[in-house]
Amino acid sequence: MFLFAGLGNPGQNYAMNRHNVGFMAVDLLADSYDFPAWQKKAASLQTTGQIDRSKIILLKPQSYMNKSGLPVAEVARFHKIPANHVFVFHDELDLAAGRVRVKQGGGHGGHNGLRDIDRHIGQDYWRIRIGIGRPDNPAMDVKSWVLADFTKTETSGWLPDLLGAISDEAPRLTTHDDSGFMSRVAFLAPPPKPPQNETQ
Known about the structure:
This protein is an alpha/beta fold. The chain contains eight helices and seven strands, in the order βαβββαββαβααααα. A seven-stranded mixed sheet has the order 2-3-4-1-5-7-6, sandwiched between helices.
């Protein structure tokens, strides 16, 4: 059994925020693989189904980003899911928009959701880092950037392509084929080209 947790903030006001791309990823997984309807259990929304032959619990903590750790830890402990079968989908500032990296272990990089998960289950879980990049305007603070909605250009361009590729290639995660997953996602959903006036 595996636990796939998407990170975000609950409520419609946050639904299209960059910070909520983890929720978006697991929502599409639920739709693509015909999982049952989401159910509220304790401090999270959950649904259980199969991806290929693997049983998967999809999870969306409803405790706000900086309190994501306890809902993840409670589900993992109850179902006796080891950390190396826990995959966390989250936004990543230090990765260009449209890129994805998979990593087991490591630091939280200042991400409040990961910081709280580290506190509750340690660092041996897998991170699916979904790049949102940093603001072009250096005067814009990071909090405003991550809590801003994706633009119409993004939601009609690279974002649905990327989430679709993540969903299509999700079976590779259950076999810990992280390099194959990253290669296929990059092939299916090439990241957007930077603006031409951007210095190299």
